[in-house]
Amino acid sequence: YKYILVLSDYASRFVHTFPMKNQTAQTIARILVNKVITKYGAPETVLTDQGTNFLSKMVSEICKLFKIRQIRTTAYHPQTDGLVERFNRTLCDMLACYVVDEPEEWDKFLPFVTFAYNTSKQATLKDNPFYLFYGREPVLPNDIKINRHFETHENEGEMYNYQWRKAQELAKEHLAEAQSKQKRYYDAGTRSIKYNIGDLVLLKAPISPGKFINRWNGPFRI
After folding, report:
1. What is the pLDDT along the chain (222 residues), one digit of tens a residue?
2. For the stretch 139-173, what's the b/e string if a residue is b when 16 or more beta carbons lie within 10 angstroms of its beta carbon?
3. Which intervals hold domain Integrase catalytic (predicted)?
4. Distance of CA 59 to the CA centre of its chain
C-alpha cells in the first residue's frame, strides 16, 4: 500500500482510514460505496480537496446518485479542510512510533492507530469520537482484562439515548465555541485587503518553497 484515504465526520471527529495501493477515482469510489455508504448511509454533504480523483466524473456521479452535496476546498488553501489536515499530521506522528523497524508495514498498524485516536478524548469536544459517533463507550482491552461486566437495567436504553443526545449537543456547542475562538485568533493576525476588477494579483504556489523556487504564480488579472 502507498496511500491512505481519510474520511472524517465533522460533528463527532470520528475518522475512517483506508489503505490504498493507488489513488484513482475508481478506488476511491469503490471505498465510498462499499465501506461507507452501504454501512452508514449516504452523508448529506461531502467536503473534499481539489484532487483530480475527487473531481472525477465517477465520484460526482456517485454523489448525484445518492443526493450528496459535494463541496471542495479553496484552491491552494488546504486549511479549508483543517480537520483532516490536522488529523493527517497526527496520524503520521502516531504511525511513526510503530513502524521504526518495519516502515513498509505501516498498513498493519493503521487500524490500531485509528482506533486509538477515535477512543481518545478530544479537548475541543470534551468527549471521545467513538462515543459521539456510536452512542456507546468502546470496549477496550483493559475492560476485558479486568472482566468488566456491562449489565442492562430497565429503562437503561432510554437513559443511554438521552445521555448520547446530550453529549452530542454539548459537543456541538464546544465545537462552535472553539471555531469562534479560532476565527478571532485568525482575524486578529490578518488585515483586510480590497481588490478591484482589473487589478493584477499573484497566486501563492502550493509547493514547499526552496531557495531558488518562485513562491508565486502570475500575475493574473481579476
Report:
1. 899 999 999 888 999 999 999 999 999 999 999 999 999 999 999 988 887 888 788 899 999 999 999 988 776 555 556 778 888 888 888 888 777 777 888 998 899 889 988 988 887 778 889 988 998 888 876 665 555 555 555 566 666 566 656 656 765 665 566 556 656 655 566 666 788 888 888 777 655 444 334 466 778 888
2. eeeeeeeeeeeeeeeeeeeeeeeeebeebbeebee
3. 1-137
4. 18
**DSSP 8-state code for residue 103:** G
* HSE-up of residue 110 (Cα within 13 Å, Cβ side): 19
Range of the domain at 69: 3-137
Residue with C-alpha cell 471542495? 72
Does residue 86 form part of some domain? Answer: yes
**Torsions phi, psi for 171 (to 5 deg):** -60, -40
> What is the Cα–Cα distance from 9 to 63, expressed in whole angstroms?
17
| 170, part of any domain | no
Euclidean distance between CA atoms 77 and 205, whole angstroms? 10
- CATH at residue 69: 3.30.420.10
Whether the CB-CB separation of 132 and 175 falls below 8 Å is answered with no
Cell matching residue 143: 475492560
Say if 79 falls within a structural domain: yes
Question: Is 90 among the domain residues?
Answer: yes
